[in-house]
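Hi V.,

Quick status before I head out on leave. The structure for the redesign project is tokenized and pasted below; the design run finished overnight.
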């Protein structure tokens, strides 16, 4: 059987006091999707509410992987993604959460999401997230009562990057929040590729890191299925 990857996306389309338009950042979903597709995995999407999600950064559509996602099956599947609570996640090998500012709106406290991520992690399945996507890892408690990120090597969008991007729009600083829950945070140069693995957890810093997150997730999935 082909390995199965579940991609969980936000349903938010605005953020902050000025209602900044947002969504899932196109390359952060398209680039990992391309890696999963290349590996011939079965790829499914779900969203938190089951309503059609939104895409941000459509100005980057001329990138080959982004264009293929938009014109191929990727966006079609994402657009019609069912509600997270309506599916059985037990038979998936990995879960991936792309970024964009949208996850900062509806993922910090979503209890269903936290439960599912904990389930993947504690059953030794792969958990991946990039840029603002690691906000999905915040407030995830494991069965021993510890935060999932406690003591883990983590990358996400950095304070330095946020200061020059959306500081006035986000409800909190992601690097600070992850560090406060015990994450060992790894920040590279702003906007440079930076993806890291810690056990079955894969995280990346920004859009340039999305491809690396996808590649590292594929490597882990292949090693577990060999």
């Amino acid at each position: 059987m082909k390995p199965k990857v579940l991609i969980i996306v936000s349903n938010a389309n605005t953020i902050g006091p000025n209602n900044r338009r947002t969504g899932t950042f196109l390359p952060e979903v398209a680039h990992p999707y391309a890696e999963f597709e290349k590996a011939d995995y079965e790829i499914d999407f779900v969203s938190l509410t089951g309503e059609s999600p939104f895409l941000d950064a459509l100005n980057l559509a001329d990138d080959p992987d982004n264009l293929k996602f938009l014109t191929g099956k990727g966006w079609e599947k994402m657009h019609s993604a069912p509600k997270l609570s309506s599916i059985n996640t037990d038979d998936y090998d990995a879960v991936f959460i792309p970024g964009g500012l949208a996850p900062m709106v509806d993922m910090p406290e979503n209890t269903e999401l936290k439960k599912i991520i904990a389930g993947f992690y504690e059953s030794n399945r792969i958990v991946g997230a990039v840029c603002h996507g690691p906000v999905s890892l915040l407030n995830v408690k494991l069965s021993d009562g510890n935060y999932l990120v406690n003591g883990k090597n983590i990358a996400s969008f950095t304070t330095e990057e946020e200061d020059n991007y959306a500081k006035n729009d986000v409800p909190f600083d992601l690097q600070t929040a992850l560090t406060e829950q015990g994450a060992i945070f790894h920040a590279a140069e702003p906007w440079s590729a930076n993806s890291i693995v810690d056990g079955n957890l894969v995280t990346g810093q920004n859009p340039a890191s999305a491809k690396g997150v996808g590649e590292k997730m594929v490597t882990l999935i292949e090693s577990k299925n060999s």
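Above is the designed sequence. The longest strand covers residues 4-9.

G. will cover questions while I'm gone.

Best,
W.
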